[in-house]
Amino acid sequence: MKFGMTFAEYLQHGEQEGFLNNCSHVEYKRLKKVLKSCRICRAESHGEGEDDSGGGGGEGASELCQCESKAAQCPACDQLFFAEIAKEASEISGCFSSRARQLRHLHLPSGLQRYMRHVRCCFVDDQNTLVQEGRMLIDYITMNAIAMRKILKKYDKIHSSVNGRNFKTTLRAKHIELLQSPWLTELGAFCINSNNSDIGKSGEFIQQFSCDFSGAEPLMTLTLSNSVNLEYSLTCAVCLDTLFNPYALGCGHLFCKGCACSSASVFLFEGPKAAPKGAKCPVCRAVGVYANSVHLAELDLLLKNSCRDYWKERMQSERMEMVKQSKIYWESQTKFAIGYGH
């Protein structure tokens, strides 16, 4: 079955139909029609379009495409495609992040809500509902990412260009590349924590999330049904060790909380969000990414359960560092209050 038919069935049938009502998605069919008209227009410019146009195709093509015979770029397609795909990617990424955040909040509540959840679990077991929601979210982001990659690949094939491939770099720079979202890593940790690493039942493309801590570098792997493995490193880029108390910055890069705070020159007890506006990501040097930093609680729980001795050692070390920094902070505040610093 072609991907277009599979994607159409995914949007219209099954348990995902109600789930997708309030979610954005890639307009795969419409964008593919634009590319088809573009191909007809380019063929006509080479004198080959009479048979391919099927009579009425040329008129629709002239409205959508203005390709030149020797041009590698198509002004109409470029304007429509890349602006439209960037908008769709932004909406899909925002929807996915919002739903994943809500799911994580329901699974790992804090304060009074944690107590209320414990009381609720005495009467209603909603764990399976949460797991099913997580599965559908992973299907959602993966199906749309595949649709986006296929349509960009088709663009390059028709226009004999690399604009579609280069556009992926633009999406990554805007932090809306779908399969690089830190919330996908968080959902993978959620599935493993729920003892449901095999999540192939909910979708054709998703088969398995797994973690490997035995190698030189800890990895989380998402295996697709076409035997493609997407690997996500669980190594902090600052301390070069396994993540501890992980935080994702707005750019998507993951760091230990202590490493993120140290890089931004803020105290550990203040947290990454206290970083100044001009603080840069240690990896990509993007500015202003600390304000949108997120604590990956599910991933932290996974690391705690998988690397108990390492996690305890890092916890003790971080507590000692926090006490040390707190002492320095309050000493400086006391000196300032009594005017000693002047």
UniProtKB/TrEMBL annotation:
One Pfam family matching this protein: zf-RING_UBOX
Catalytic activity from the UniProt record: S-ubiquitinyl-[E2 ubiquitin-conjugating enzyme]-L-cysteine + [acceptor protein]-L-lysine = [E2 ubiquitin-conjugating enzyme]-L-cysteine + N(6)-ubiquitinyl-[acceptor protein]-L-lysine
Domain SPX: 1-169
Record-annotated RING-type domain positions: 236-285
Record flagged with keyword rRNA processing: no
Pathway as given in its UniProt record: Protein modification; protein ubiquitination
Coiled coil region boundaries: none
Documented EC number(s): 2.3.2.27
Record InterPro entries: BAH1 (IPR033326), SPX_dom (IPR004331), Znf-RING_euk (IPR027370), Znf_RING (IPR001841), Znf_RING/FYVE/PHD (IPR013083), Znf_RING_CS (IPR017907)
Alphabetical UniProt keywords: Metal-binding, Transferase, Ubl conjugation pathway, Zinc, Zinc-finger
One GO molecular-function entry: ubiquitin protein ligase activity
Name assigned to this protein: RING-type E3 ubiquitin transferase
Organism: Acorus gramineus
Lineage: Eukaryota, Viridiplantae, Streptophyta, Embryophyta, Tracheophyta
